[in-house]
Design goal:
It is a single chain. The chain is an all-beta fold. The protein folds into 2 domains: 179 residues, Jelly Rolls (Sandwich); 290 residues, Sandwich (Jelly Rolls). Strands 1, 4, 5, 7, 12, 13, 14 and 16 form an 8-stranded antiparallel β-sheet that branches. Strands 17, 19, 20, 22, 27, 28, 29 and 32 form an 8-stranded antiparallel β-sheet that branches. A hairpin with a 6-residue loop joins strand 28 and strand 29. It is globular, with a radius of gyration of 24 Å. The protein starts with 7 loop residues before the first strand and ends with a helix.
Length: 493
C-alpha cells in the first residue's frame, strides 16, 4: 500500500502562539499543548507536550505522519492512530527514543502497554515518521530527510478495531523538539467517479424546471426517489421558499435571509444569510437566519423528510466572504450552515438536542454528529455519539465557492454512514474529506418509532457577547439516491 494516502493537514504556518489552535486539542494525555514558533510546532525544553488532531475521529483504517524538524539529544516521541481517550491514550503508536538505532518501537497502548514491533532505525533531525492501521495490520514508516517513505515493518493486532483519533506527544530533557507537516486521514479517500448520468424520461423532464423543487414542470412529487434519481432541488431561481423546497423561513430581521443575484454559483440567484448580535428568532435558541423543511408536513409531502433505512446524497455550495469573522476557532462551539435535525416532538430526551448531522464554519469547515439513543445522557458508549469531525481539508476557501456532497445512510442502529466530499472551485475536483461508518445517523429513543428528520440551511450560531456579523451565501442544493445524479444536477456542465 502506498504511504501516505493523505496530504499534509497542518503545516503550522501561522502566528506564533502558546498552543496549536485550530483543529487541535488543547492537551493530550497529561501534557499541555505544543506551541507555534516560526511556522512550526514546538515543544518545551525539559518538559512533555501533546496534542490530538481535531478532537474528531477518522475511520478504523487511518494513517498519521509528521516531520521531526529538530530533535534534541535526549527525547521520546510517540505518534498515535486509533486512540479513543485523549486523557489516557490507547490505540496504536510508534515510539522512538534518543535517536539510537535500536529504539524504534511499534506499540499497543492503554493501561497495559505492549510492544508489538521493534525496528533498527535511527531517527534524526529532518526525518519523518508515520504509522497506519488497516484492518488488523499496523505498519510503521520512516522517511529520511530528502528521501522516500519506507515501511519498516508491520504487526497484526485486533485490540483496537474501531475509528479513533490521530495524535502525537513528545518529551525533551534538553533542547525543545520542533515538528512540521503533520498529515493524517482515512486510508480510502477516493470519491466515487463523477460520470454523466443517463436521464430517464422522468429525469429529463425534471431538468426542464430548475429551481423550484419539482413543481416547475408540473411533475408530481415522488414518494421515494428511484435509482439514480434527484427528487429535490433548490437553486433559488424562483425565490427563497416554495411548497416543495424550503417551506419555512426563520428570519428575525429583514436582512436575515435574502435572495441574491450578485454572488451566485450557477444560474442567476443564490440565498444570502446574515446574522448579527442578538438576532434571535421567536423563542428559539441561538442566533440564526435559516430556511427549513418543516417536519410538520402533510402526508403527501412526507417524502421530503428522512427516515431510517434510506441512503441519500445531498449537495450544497457555500461561499464564505474574505471578511468572514469566526465566532470561535477550531471545533469549540457551533456555527452551522447545513443541518439534518432530529424530531422536535420526540419527548423529553430530545428537548434542546443538537442537530443529528451538521456542517459548521468557524475558522475551518468541519462536521458534527449527535446521534443514537437519547434515553441516555450523551455521550454514552454503545448508545449514542457526540463527535466533531474535522476534514482532511478544512480550509474555508474564503472568497470562492466551495462545493460539498454528503452521503447519509440513515440508521437507528450501528449500521449507518456519514461521508463528505469537498471541492474548492479553484481546484476543480472532489476529495473525500471525512467519513464515519458503522454508526447511528439518526436520533431515537428505546422502544419508540424513529421520528422523521428534516433539513435546514443558513446560519445558526451561539449567542454572541460582542458585535460579530456573519454573512454567507448558499446555492446548488439537491437531494437524491445517486452521487453521480446529484453532482450532475447541482453543477451542470
Amino acid at each position: 500500500m502506498a504511504f501516505p494516502v493523505n496530504g499534509v493537514v497542518d503545516d503550522f504556518a501561522r502566528t506564533n502562539s502558546s498552543t496549536l489552535g485550530g483543529a487541535w486539542s488543547s492537551s493530550f494525555a497529561t501534557y499541555s499543548s505544543h506551541g507555534i514558533s516560526s511556522n512550526q510546532a514546538v515543544g518545551t525544553a525539559s518538559a512533555s507536550r501533546g496534542n490530538c488532531f481535531s478532537g474528531s475521529g477518522f475511520n478504523a483504517d487511518q494513517e498519521a505522519y509528521i516531520t521531526c524538524t529538530t530533535l534534541g539529544s535526549t527525547f521520546t516521541v510517540y505518534l498515535f492512530v486509533r486512540t479513543h481517550d485523549i486523557t489516557d491514550p490507547d490505540g496504536y503508536a510508534i515510539a522512538f527514543v534518543n535517536g539510537t538505532s535500536d529504539n524504534f518501537f511499534l506499540g499497543k497502548m492503554g493501561s497495559d502497554v505492549q510492544i508489538i514491533g521493534t525496528y533498527s532505525q535511527q531517527v534524526q533531525s529532518g526525518d519523518s515518521v508515520g504509522i497506519s492501521a488497516s484492518g488488523s495490520t499496523i505498519t510503521a514508516y520512516y522517511k529520511a530527510s530528502g528521501g522516500s517513505w519506507t515501511a519498516l515493518g508491520s504487526a497484526g493486532d485486533t485490540t483496537f478495531s474501531g475509528s479513533g483519533y490521530a495524535a502525537w506527544d513528545d518529551t525533551s530533557d534538553g533542547t525543545a523538539n520542533v515538528f512540521d507537516n503533520f498529515g493524517a486521514g482515512n486510508l480510502s479517500v477516493t470519491p466515487p467517479p463523477v460520470s454523466t448520468p443517463i436521464l430517464t424520461p422522468f429525469m429529463a423532464l425534471l431538468n426542464v424546471g430548475r429551481g423550484n423543487g419539482l413543481g416547475g414542470s408540473g411533475i408530481p412529487d415522488p414518494v421515494t426517489p428511484s435509482s439514480g434519481c434527484v427528487n429535490w432541488r433548490c437553486t433559488f431561481e424562483d425565490g427563497l421558499s416554495t411548497s416543495n423546497t424550503w417551506n419555512q423561513i426563520q428570519a428575525p430581521q429583514s436582512y436575515s435571509v435574502q435572495s441574491n443575484t450578485t454572488t451566485v454559483r450557477t444560474g442567476a440567484s443564490s440565498a444570502r444569510f446574515e446574522v448579527r448580535q442578538g438576532d434571535v428568532y421567536s423563542d428559539y435558541s441561538g442566533e440564526r437566519a435559516e430556511l427549513a423543511v418543516s417536519q410538520y408536513t402533510s402526508a403527501s409531502q412526507d417524502w421530503i423528510l428522512e427516515h431510517a433505512g434510506t441512503t441519500m446524497y445531498y449537495t450544497v455550495s457555500v461561499y464564505i466572504p474574505t471578511d468572514w469573522t469566526p465566532t470561535y476557532t477550531g471545533v469549540g462551539g457551533f456555527s452551522i450552515f447545513l443541518q439534518e435535525h432530529g424530531p422536535n416532538d420526540a419527548g423529553p430526551a430530545h428537548d434542546g438536542l443538537s442537530p443529528a448531522l451538521c456542517l459548521n464554519a468557524s475558522d475551518i469547515f468541519y462536521a458534527t454528529v449527535t446521534v443514537g439513543d437519547w434515553d441516555y445522557p450523551y455521550p454514552t458508549d454503545g448508545h449514542n455519539i457526540y463527535q466533531n469531525i474535522t476534514f482532511s481539508d478544512p480550509s474555508l476557501n474564503k472568497g470562492n465557492w466551495t462545493d460539498f456532497v454528503l452521503k447519509v445512510k440513515h440508521a437507528n442502529d450501528y449500521t449507518g454512514e456519514f461521508t463528505i466530499w469537498k471541492r474548492n472551485t479553484s481546484s476543480g475536483s472532489f476529495t473525500q474529506v471525512a467519513s464515519l461508518t458503522n454508526i447511528p445517523t439518526m436520533q431515537y429513543q428505546t422502544g419508540s418509532a424513529v421520528g422523521p428528520h428534516y433539513w435546514k440551511c443558513g446560519i445558526y450560531r451561539d449567542n454572541q457577547a460582542t458585535a460579530i456579523t456573519n454573512i454567507l451565501y448558499e446555492d446548488c442544493q439537491t437531494r437524491g439516491s445517486s452521487y453521480d445524479a446529484c453532482v450532475a444536477d447541482a453543477w451542470p456542465t
